[in-house]
Amino acid sequence: MNIREREFLRFLTRFDEHPFTVKIGGKRYKIGEGRPEFGVVFHRIPELSKLLKSTSIALGEAYMDGSLEIEGDLYRALNRFMGQIGKFSTDRRALKKLLFSSQDKKNQLKEVSSHYDIGNEFYRLWLDETMSYSCGFFQHKEDSLYKAQCNKIDRILRKLQLAPGMTLCDIGCGWGYLLMEAVKKYDVNGVGITLSREQKAGFEEEIRKAGLGGRIQVKLMDYRDISGLNMQFDRVVSVGMLEHVGRENYPLFLKNVKRVLKPGGIFLLHFISALKEYPGDPWIKKYIFPGGMIPSLREIIHEASELRFYTIDVESLRRHYTRTLLHWNKNFQNHRELVELRFDKKFVRMWELYLCVCAAAFMNGIVDLHQVVFTNDVNNKIRNINKYCK
Questions:
Q1: Residue 116 confidence (pLDDT) above 80
Q2: Which of 248, 287, 319, 333 shows its CA 20 to 30 Å from the CA of 359?
Q3: Catalytic site includes residue 358
Q4: Of the listed 150, 356, 358, 389, which one is catalytic?
Q5: Is the overall model pTM greater than 0.85, yes or no?
Q6: What confidence tens digit (pLDDT) does each residue in 9-22 have?
């Protein structure tokens, strides 16, 4: 064993809570006590300096380029390993530009587009028929991904307590299934806003097919410009968009919601959350969600209360997101060859790592998923959310 290998193995001993084996150059070593729960093969070991700068990026890139392989199921291994993420090294000073990118409109548009404008056909390969790219709600053990997404959307619409003739704004509307269901089932009128040209085009095509052109509008718009619609809405919903706003802009985001929401109106915010405020994972920011920032539940409720948003319901769907991500990964693996033909092998390994590492992060409580229901100031006519959702 040479010095570099010895230093590398010494670094790995910090992750000894769940025993595993490490294979380097035909030799196998054991980390931790007890029977190994998974194995890792290194065809080329990462440089120690890179591991100390960002353990996340160093190991993530090693998996992407194939120099790191997992023996067995990737998710199962990550589920054991991710519980020790607090032991990862992150040099925040060296990674400052990556961790704290600009939150101005131009840069955030670029960051959002880099993820969501990969192509609608790509997302159709592994999302369900609703094209929902957010956590599902598995009401029953046997629920399919499609059923779970329908459950989620139905649950959100029930929490919004919609009535015929109301207006609903969806900030970060994605491919639009939620708004279309609201219009068809509750006879409301809707406006969706997105920064993704691909999502807008896909949504508009679905509106045309459904003959809902007079009932739904889709705008390519930043949330900071929403008051320019010159509309007041009875309800506002935002699903999986807050993660792109950035910590400095949470008050601004909420102020803009308040500007377009009628007094007493309901605002439902569905977002990935964390126990505490932190800048995010370097690998995820570099390769998956540039500029992404996960808020804590407490900071959002605090900022909302400053604007007299009354919190009337909070629900965690953390374990539902693990199941959702595992369904996505299964679908992704079923279309792996098609994705590799369109992109390349490195992209495929990057994307499967993203799906599995996120599933493990939710299972280990590193991140959570919350649906929070607010009213814009006091509304004594709102029905009990829990009873309404049964």
A1: yes
A2: 248
A3: yes
A4: 358
A5: yes
A6: 999 999 999 999 99
